[in-house]
Amino acid sequence: MPLDRLAFQGLRNFKTLELSPGPRINVFVGENGSGKTSLLEGIHVLGMGRSFRTRQLRNAIAHDASELVLHGHLDGEPPVPIGVRRRLDADELEMRLSGEKVGRVSELVQTLPLQLINPDAFRLLEGSPAGRREFVDWGVFHVKHDFLDAWKRYRRALKHRNALLRHGRMQDASMSAWERELAHWGARMDDLRHAWLDAFLPVFQETLEGLISLPDLQLRYARGWDRKRELAEVLEQGRETDQQMGFTQQGPQRADLSIRLGRRPAVEILSRGQQKLVVSALKLAQGRLLERLTGRSCVYLIDDLPAELDDGRKRIFCEWLMHMRCQAFITSVDPGALMEQWDPNTPVSMFHVKHSEVGQGQLLPMDRQTS
């Protein structure tokens, strides 16, 4: 379902903002610091319950505002209004779907599937395994409906086992009980991840080949413990070393999806532009698989699409977005960098973002043929 209305209050440099985006491609152009990325940030909070720019959502509240209020409207049958509110004087995030309060961020995530492509997305290649696990788990969550329950049960058991380790209670009867829970739900998480990856990998390879020729690039999944051993055995035999470290060292919480060219990490070989195309292939493949398995489409948030891509690669990337028939919100400093990338039959809404004298964010519709 595409977003057909957005209304933000108290978001950074936007005191108030109302926008009716198009159902397909929405391009926002403006100078650095004009607020383009803040627009994407607001949509991200609506769909993820958190910002991609700050760990503390209160930091996204305008300096002269007491709260951040975000509203979105999904055009579907039935339509779904989404609301998020964060007050300066409260830690709790208030969330609503279709007018009803919800208590779990996962309900926002399920309702508005988002994929973000921005400079931080390079962490999929160069960052820690945590970001790659999150990437995998996003995909599993949206197509395997029992994954969230397995993940929660595993995390609960992990918390209890780690507490017992820190207190030296390795022979406590409850240790064996929590390890049985860990082994059961950890194996279930691993099974669900493997099933998703089996479906994802061919879609990724096809998408990658459409963007760039890297025949030797491979994704390799490591589940977080010896694949020849059962997790229950690993946990029991690892108690002493785990107690010395103070935490559980093996299990699905240690999984990784390595991205390699031959025997080396891809990030050590690829140029920055090539890295962006690999990351883009990962993100686009997520959306393609989601649509293939569920019939639902992702909303893409793409910050500074032209950066690090030549005209040919920009054109290919835009062709993928047009082919997928998804909704996208794209920012760019230079309007000319994207004006001619779109097929004439693709609905493209272009906006100019700039500050007024009082800091009010303004969105002015632009003619897509404007130079």
From TrEMBL:
- The answer to whether the entry has keyword DNA damage is yes
Chain sites annotated for binding ATP:
G30, E31, N32, G33, S34, G35, K36, T37
Any Gene Ontology CC annotation: cytoplasm
Kindly give the Gene3D superfamilies that the UniProt entry links to this protein. Answer: P-loop containing nucleotide triphosphate hydrolases, RecF/RecN/SMC, N-terminal domain
* Subcellular localization(s) per the UniProt record: Cytoplasm
Q: What is its main location?
A: cytoplasm
Can you give the residue ranges of the RecF/RecN/SMC N-terminal domain? 3-350
* BP terms from Gene Ontology: DNA replication; DNA synthesis involved in DNA repair; double-strand break repair; SOS response
Which UniProt keywords are given for this protein, alphabetically ordered?
ATP-binding, Cytoplasm, DNA damage, DNA repair, DNA replication, DNA-binding, Nucleotide-binding, SOS response
> In its keyword annotation, does this UniProt entry include Methyltransferase?
no
- Molecular function terms, GO-annotated: ATP binding; single-stranded DNA binding
- Pfam families recorded for this chain? SMC_N
UniProt cross-references to InterPro entries, sorted A to Z? DNA-binding_RecF (IPR001238), DNA-binding_RecF_CS (IPR018078), P-loop_NTPase (IPR027417), RecF/RecN/SMC_N (IPR003395), RecF_2 (IPR042174)
| The protein's role, per its UniProt record | The RecF protein is involved in DNA metabolism; it is required for DNA replication and normal SOS inducibility. RecF binds preferentially to single-stranded, linear DNA. It also seems to bind ATP.
Q: Which NCBIfam families match?
A: recf (TIGR00611)
Name the protein family: Belongs to the RecF family.
HAMAP family (alphabetical) = RecF
What name goes with this protein? DNA replication and repair protein RecF
Q: Which organism does this record belong to?
A: Halomonas halmophila
